[in-house]
Amino acid sequence: MHSKLDSRPYWCISRQRSWGLPIPVFYEKETNQPFISKDSVQHLRELVKKYGSDCWWSMDIEELLPKSIREKGGFRSDTEFVKGSDILDIWFDSGSSWYTVLPENIKQADVYLEGIDQFGGWFQSSLITSVAQRDIAPYKKIIAHGFVVDEDGKKMSKSLGNVIDPANVVEGANDSDLGYGADVLRWWVALSHEESKVLIGKSLLKKYYEQIFKVRKTLRYLLGNLADFELDKRIEVHEMLPQDRYMMHLLSEFIETCRAFYDAHEYKKVVLSLERFINGPASAFYCRITKDRIYCSSPESKDRRSAQTVQFHIADEVLKILAPVLPFLTEEVSLYHPFDKLGSIFKRTWTDISVIQSWKDDRLAEKIQHLLHIRDSFNSFIASEDPVEFDLILFAQGHLFSTLKSLQSYELHSATSPICEILQPSNISLLSKPPVVIPDEAHVVEGVCKNKENGKVFEDRYLLLIVPAEGSLCERCRKYTSVKQTELCLRCSTALTDGWE
């Protein structure tokens, strides 16, 4: 906008056209002296109210400029006048729309929305007229969209056969390659509204459809896990397991980020953040590590309900953020949500920001980051192998050991601790002293975790011994935690007999 204003010439607001909004000026026939007054404008205003703006062209001069108004203007009643033939520049006309549209108590519209070409048109003329009249811009923010071209950046043309009909995208018509529904179009718009050239084509629409399908699968998985969950039995955040509280921390950051993007009308960033969060922290991380706990723990156990509570919050908050972009999908999810009383997603409000912020735990997040660093080392070593095929011996000292011990505080050897769930082996042993004997079949991985304290960076080394899982395969949880091959592990046995009398 600044560059457009800097290069703008002086504005002549009159145009010589036979159509448009007339400039209500009369000219004395003999001298060509212009005449306009408050009385003449008021009289014309009443005529326009009654007959419309075409009255300027259809009525004769005696009706438009009565003798009484001529006399009040200092002319004789028989002075001859002719109507002006100029009209207002259409940009002055449309640029003054704020005067009619905005209520008296509202100085600025929240948003002006138009194509990028309007930086030299409506956006600019609205700014000039409003600043000239009121010394304030008529809008708080401008949103400019680009113009649609095909996938190769070419202008759409019937002769080129590259026109995409929105109705075909939604309904399919006779084109079997389309028919994705309105949500795909909305996803496309949200992802492309900041671009000057908005690309569209069959391959792009298919890609967006597949992106939405991934979102749908994650939401379906979450709904399935909530089938037996009761909201009044949810676990408060401060009572959750560390990895669950960490996920609530990530969810809090995600919500704040997306709300800020919505406030700034940065819809592309909302969609990209949604996609990253759903495919990353929500699905690839949290749903993956808690799958065993959801499926195999005792149905009413606190640990399982802790995971269900987190998954409820993930589904609930993702739906709220997703709803403006994908209304049909989010309403469908609401229909099948186990808590029918929640109703339509569009009748609900944002979760209070103070509640969202209470989920944050930066100190815990720092601890988990150390563990995720160790997990990366473990996964890099085993490559495509299943981590459950291994047992781990983790040796650390100092600050790092204290950090890890807080995530496996009750036992140094565990198959169910937060550390074990995040790293995903069958069993893990946490040591503060190096092992006396290293098994022959063990693979040793060394690494460093960095800590910051008082502005200084400290390095804590760790040793990871990766050995084949020692236990037998439990046929229920599929982890190598059974004492005998034909028996279930202790946890699964307890889960199955829980509640027996």
TrEMBL record:
Q: Which residues form the signal peptide?
A: none
Name the InterPro entries for this protein. Answer: aa-tRNA-synth_Ia, Anticodon_Ile_BEm, Ile-tRNA_ligase, M/V/L/I-tRNA-synth_anticd-bd, Rossmann-like_a/b/a_fold, tRNAsynth_Ia_anticodon-bd
Q: Which GO terms describe its molecular function?
A: ATP binding; isoleucine-tRNA ligase activity; tRNA binding
Q: Where is the Methionyl/Valyl/Leucyl/Isoleucyl-tRNA synthetase anticodon-binding domain?
A: 244-362
For this UniProt record, the keywords arranged alphabetically read as follows: Aminoacyl-tRNA synthetase, ATP-binding, Ligase, Nucleotide-binding, Protein biosynthesis
Q: Which GO terms describe its cellular component?
A: mitochondrion
* One Pfam family this sequence matches: tRNA-synt_1
- Name all Aminoacyl-tRNA synthetase class Ia domain ranges: 5-195
CDD domains in alphabetical order: Anticodon_Ia_Ile_BEm
Instruction: Indicate yes or no for the key word Protease.
Output: no
**Does Transport show up as a keyword for this record?**
no
What does the entry give for GO biological process?
isoleucyl-tRNA aminoacylation; mitochondrial translation
Under what name is this protein listed?
DgyrCDS7606
Recorded source organism is Dimorphilus gyrociliatus
